[in-house]
């Protein structure tokens, strides 16, 4: 059960209702009217929700990077933050977009994956930023050689955005969809 107080969509402000209806164009509500993911907490501030969803949509659909690499970066972030919904949502998409299951198994286990050079580089870049909060000069040079400066900027935006998503999910203890295994069990 999420920590967030359940709200009846009929009680939303006009601005929340507009944002909620915009969400319904791309997401099916649950029987209780909630959306899931970070969206219910974000709806508390409809302008914030609108702006964050816009950034998320751009990062999800319109980067210069291979979609599988973006999903890998998102999944790495979900793993670092032990964000159940994040991992459950994006790890399967990484596989769908061409990242081998063995790479995802390594990421889940906290191991540097044995994937393509680009997959390993995405892992190294993400982990350097999550753990060391910076890139060494050689790692920066490898990343810009492989992805260009634009691609590296997009990786930074993706992992930064999904840190925000992961923090929201964890703060509100948003649960995975019913019937979905919980990747990171926690003590009550």
Structural write-up:
Helices cover 63% and strands 0% of the residues. It is built from 8 helices and no strands. Helix 3 (46-61) crosses helix 8 (137-171), helix 4 packs across helix 8 and helix 7 crosses helix 8 (137-171). The mean pLDDT is 95.
How many E strands? 0
Name the helix and strand elements from N-terminus to C-terminus, one letter apiece. Answer: HHHHHHHH
Q: Categorize the overall geometry.
A: globular
The pLDDT mean sits at 95
Note the main sheet: none
Whole-number radius of gyration? Answer: 17 Å
Number of helices: 8
Strand content of the residues, in percent? Answer: under 5%
Distance between the termini: 12 Å
Poorly predicted runs = none
Task: Compile the SSE list and pairings.
Elements: H1 14-24, H2 39-42, H3 46-61, H4 67-80, H5 84-96, H6 101-109, H7 117-132, H8 137-171
How would you briefly describe this protein structure?
The chain has helices at 14-24, 39-42, 46-61, 67-80, 84-96, 101-109, 117-132, 137-171.
List the defining traits of the structure above.
mainly alpha
